[in-house]
Amino acid sequence: MGVDEISSCSNPRRHSALAMCVYNGAPYLQEQLDSIAQQTVRLDQIVIVDDKSNDGSWDLLQAWKANCGLNVTLVRNDHNFGFVKNFEKASALVDADIVFFADQDDIWQTDKVERMLHQFDDPKVMLAHSDADLIDEESARLGRQLFATLLLRNDERAMVRSGRAAAVYLKRNLVTGAACAVRRELLKHALPFPQSHGWSHDEWLALAAGVTGSVAMLEESTMSYRLHGSNTIGIPITDWRWRLQTIVRGIFSPQRQALERRLERLNILRERCIQWDPPVWFLQELDAVLEHLAHRLSLSANPLRRIQPVLREWRGRRYNVWSNGELSVIHDILLAN
């Protein structure tokens, strides 16, 4: 047996697939489809689910399928599902070792599939995601990167690399679905996606990956992420105005509704993740944040009675870990949720 044959047997090629959702994406769709077709490593299967577009997207998809030379399955919903349920449908239709996700309005670098597949050489990696260049409606670069705009911190990077990504995601999501790929096994755990309390498919997959395995974070960009007025989920430009507005809202805006929603979301997660055989440390972290949220929601309406329990929670550093640190402390002392 030759060297090439031995290498091929020891490292078999992974089959890859794409789950893509489209809804009225005609202005940017062709550019995205062309970037997918031009990959240095071709996808073995492409499933695109159109959520009953009415702007010509379906005709564009059919024309592209006829000429791209790829294994493409097109599905059109008979009514509008919404983006989370639509991604769930697309995810259930793919059959490959590694599954990529795509929005309708981005642009992939030609070696995105090739580079992302390398992240799964580690058998523990259940999800890989990358940085991205931000572009505008005209495909012009904005001079900003996705991770920097998300204010990704070095301590968060370290936690992801140490195998504790799920602890980071309990506080905030860092994974953008359009910039990620997952093992097929992860979808077996994660499907169906929660349809209530505002869960997005990418944050749910990120938590499931962090609980069932590890997450690979690729610091380099593999795509251009488009910002425009029609984004279903936008990325805020985190300049000084955004920071000032965040501080003002964090201190002076009522937060009971947001805290209740977060508590309900994490209770849904706890109920589901028991089926994933979670590590003990994760359940301890999850219970800790649930207790912290319950504490904040139980604070007295009397400001004099709030001070001591708030300061006690702060001294235990739980405000720093599970809320927004001193901003949340000041808010809870000044305002009754």
Written account of the structure:
The protein folds into two domains: 224 residues, Spore Coat Polysaccharide Biosynthesis Protein SpsA, Chain A (Alpha-Beta Complex); 95 residues, no CATH class. The protein has 16 helices and nine strands. Helix 2 runs parallel beside helix 3 and helix 11 packs parallel to helix 16. The chain is an alpha/beta fold. The longest helix has 18 residues.
Map the helices and strands.
Layout (H helix, E strand, L loop, with lengths): L2 H8 L5 E7 L3 H12 L7 E6 L6 H12 L3 E5 L6 H11 L4 E5 L4 E2 L3 H7 L6 E11 L5 E5 H4 L4 H8 L3 H5 L10 E4 H7 L10 H12 L1 E13 L13 H13 L3 H18 L6 H18 L5 H13 L2 H5 L3 H9 L3
Parallel strand pairs: 1-2, 1-4, 2-3, 6-9
Antiparallel strand pairs: 4-8, 5-9, 6-7, 6-8
Helix pairs in contact: 2-3, 9-10, 11-16, 12-13, 14-16
